[in-house]
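Take one record.
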Amino acid sequence: MQCRFIDTGINDCFTNMAIDEALLESNIPILRFYQWKPKAVSIGYNQNINKEVNISYCKKNKIGIVRRITGGKAILHDKELTYSFIIPEKTSLLPKDIVKSYRIIAKALLIGLKKLKINVEMKKINEKIKTPICFNSANWYELTVNNKKISGSAQRRLKGKILQHGSILIDFDYEQNNNISNSNNKIDSIENLKQRITSIKNESNEKISIKKFKKEIKNGFEEHFKFELTNDSLNTEEKILTNKLLKEKYKTLEWNQKFLSAVCKN
């Protein structure tokens, strides 16, 4: 089956989220890679930004904040490779069962990381830990190395599509991840974060270039799903929709702050 491969490179947080939503209009499977500059916090759809994110710290340190259309917890996007995988539900490549679909996509990521000689495993259970930090707890079938989380993901189904996007950690700033949170829980301390979270830098015996990293993750999807991956870019309609979503949604205070507060009050 044909699958579009789109590497949109480095963008700000608002653009990255707008592109993901714009790509939901595609009727062909898409694997997208992207990165973030400046660094930014993306918050889950139902998170209370005022309660769980240290907004003043983020502003002081020029860290962007954007709300995702997917659920989950806060992620500081910095030294990572982010992927999004978009599949029309009618293709039947993924089951209706969300947990099972997490496992299938995780297998593609696992294959790619194994090619990089990272001794990665799938966490088969969902950890119910009270923390606002995504990487401090593992969802169904997320990837770990020596029981430390190295990749986090979130999924949503809308417009007849399945969207899963996630982050694979190249490096991890424990202190800054602690600082972006308003949590007073002991589990979110720097010491505990070091015990629960790892990165490619920590687990690899060699320096892996971003080019090689992308190549092997791409190969993992191609091999696992038996795709014919075609290098592509945003088409004219997708660019127009991205700009529209940027102005009317992702850059607005209503979407990123006020709406969240209203949701949590209801």
About this structure: Residues 2-265 form a domain with the BirA Bifunctional Protein; domain 2 fold (CATH 3.30.930.10).
